[in-house]
Amino acid sequence: MYGITDLKVGVIFEFEGEPYVVLESQHSKMGRGGAVLKSKIKNLMTGVIISKTFRGGEKFNTVEIERAKAQFLYCEGKEYFFMDQTTYEQMSLDKDFVGEASKYLMEGETYQLQVYKGKPISIDLPIKMNFLVTEAEKGLKGDTASGATKRVKIETGLAVNVPLFIKKGDRIRVDTRDGSYVERAKK
Asked: How far is CA 122 from the centre of its chain?
């Protein structure tokens, strides 16, 4: 059981029968009124973020989140198909569920899924991933002291701003949190 002092950023707990993760938390003591926690929490099943104030005596159940490895097979329409690496069962996930992760999914790659009571609740992408540049404009010669960039397309179709020296066929490392270029990757 968690009390309000245990609800720190990143802690997953059960609230109103569903799993939530703490995004922001601010403890305060109100004179005679007791302690309160002002927080922003995210429902891991629906993705909805709410602001909530908890009182000092409230208790919350811990949540068992399992991790499962799943291979991304293919996308058909609005469905993304994965295969669990331990049971070899196929599962389909809706486009709304996959969300921003769809920009980084590559067929045949294995990803980590978070599972709550047998149901996937999120896809954990590595923070940095390597991709092949499939389209790139010619770099312009000239003033490059200011860190000039150009847009390229990677194999998943995502457009990324990169330095001028990157060309078609290069492999680049991309930060999946914000879609930014990190560095040129080894081939």
From this structure: 8
- CA distance linking residue 73 with residue 17, whole number of Å: 32
What is the value of pTM for the model shown?
A: 0.71
* Contact by Cβ (8 Å): 25, 38: yes
- CA–CA separation, 166 vs 184, rounded Å? 8
Task: Identify the residue whose tokens are 């990143």.
Answer: 10
In this structure, which topology does domain 66-124 adopt according to CATH? OB fold (Dihydrolipoamide Acetyltransferase, E2P) (2.40.50)
pLDDT tens digits, residue range 31-44? 777 788 899 998 88
Q: Are 45 and 116 a contacting pair, CB within 8 Å?
A: yes
Q: What kind of architecture, by CATH, is found in domain 128-184?
A: Beta Barrel (2.40)
User: Which two three-digit tokens encode residue 3?
Assistant: 């009390």
Element (H, E) at 95: helix 95-98
DSSP code for 124: E
